[in-house]
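Hi support team,

I submitted a single chain yesterday and got back a structure, but I'm not sure I'm reading the token output correctly. Could someone confirm the output below corresponds to the sequence I sent? I've pasted both exactly as they appear in my results page.

Thanks,
R.
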Amino acid sequence: MGEKTTGMDGIAKFENLHFGLYKVSETQAPDGATPAEDFYVTLPMPHTEGASPDHVNKYLYNVFAYPKNKVEYITKKVDDSALRSSEQDFSWTLESSVNSYEKDGQKGITKYTITDTLDSRLTYKSIEIKGLAGTEGAQEVTFAEGVDFTATFDQSNRKLTIEFIDFTKLNSIASDGGKLTTQFVTTFNAVGTDGSAVSGGNITDLKNKAYLRPNQDPTWEDEAKRVPSDEPKVELGRIQAIKKDGKTNAALQGAKFELYDEAGNKLKFYDKAGALVESTTSDAEGNLWFGGLRTSDQSSGKELTGDNIVKYYLVEVQAPEGYAKLAEAIEVTLKTDQDGNDQKDEDGSIVTLDIENTPRTLFELPKTGATIAMVLVGGGIILVIGGGLYMFALRQKKSE
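Hi R., thanks for writing in. Yes, this is the structure output for that exact sequence:
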């Protein structure tokens, strides 16, 4: 009898119809919703239930139907509170709808898939899935990998695919308000497997979306039409330092540094050449790079303030030849979107600073050793003079 599309008011009208039985099918649902179940309408329609006495056993010639869509959703959050730099783990949490499904004689979910294409700097590690029905007092359900679902990470396209294979537990929580909580752990690598974040100081943030196929309805067959999540970010950046002579301002080569977090843990980072290292040495221009670090003032999508702001510490383990080594670590705060003297990347943050060394003098380092040496030298002079005086006195006595 034709096809209609609902307007802004949600209404679609079929007019001038002949008497008879009509089947109504929703062929395309609004974005993020599963099409309503098919239903039948007769024209005219007997008016019985809920009718006033004057209308009992009479017929309706203008019929209003209210099919309901089930809205599907998936959200994504990141917990990077413990993340500082490369080769450390952090987690992502997905929450997705689990609605009951009944259409074309099929009752129950027989297809449920979540996909998430990971950044090349992330390595998939582990997963945990739990569910909860939308009914009051419902008990949490735990899903077993390899029994209820599979989680496959394809290294070639970086796609993590979570696919249910047994739907018994899933259908037990399927209801209005039913939800699934998926948490998976990734390892951060400052240098991407595809070469990203290697050269040129690429420090773009980590961000991507997950996609949900909530049931077997043909609506979701096309991946482009599946339900997208939001896109949380892990804010990244780097510290750039220039090693200089404290008096002449000349660049210093050969200063070796390590990087530590506020708990005293030694961190790995990538240097200017893109190598993953545990220490770096200033080049002929005095450059020192510490890349692939989480910013200090953002964590898990929230801004940090006060004592919660992360601090990084640069520790000089070897000074340039002829210079005194720094006695204390240098505390650095890497703020989000902080601009520096170098070119700032699209989303990443850069902080730059100068680190000065002073030339070492003869008795300056080590100070304790220099003091002892002076005492010994002084003692030696005294002994020599004392010995000479004693020999002179002894000869004088003999001559008498």
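A quick pointer for reading it: DSSP finds two helices and 31 strands in the chain. Let us know if anything else looks off.

Best,
Support desk
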